[in-house]
User: Fold this.
Amino acid sequence: MRVTALLASLVLALAACAGCTGQASVGECAKQTDLDDTSVDMAEVDCSAQDATYRVSSRERRTMCPPGDYLDESSGRTRGTGKTRYCYVLNVKEGDCLKAVNQYFERVACGTDTRKVTKVVEGESDRTLCAGDDSKVYSQPVKTICISR
Assistant:
């Protein structure tokens, strides 16, 4: 009887997660599942992967991310926890080349029609550090990313 109840619970848990997309936890990396899709639909990916362009900086149970240029995704409402908002920061380093696709960036080989990460400043969130380049600023973690135009 106990084995049957345990198996039934396991089957129900797996069925409930049939639509799970492998959402990353805070600190883990993610990629957009379909760059042609204008809605944010991220999936967890190893941070060393070429397509790990974003990192989860926070997971909020509120309607907005902290102040900054976050890419955000809202999960569906669950009975116990309500809606969860995932806030993503760019996961890049100086010298990385990016291609803008819809509201996302994709890490690509440097060439024509690419933009280059010119500076990453940890511990400061200040657009003036980018001296004419585009900037992405974040308050959690505190960071400024400068990207050539």
Notes: The two ends are 66 Å apart (CA to CA).
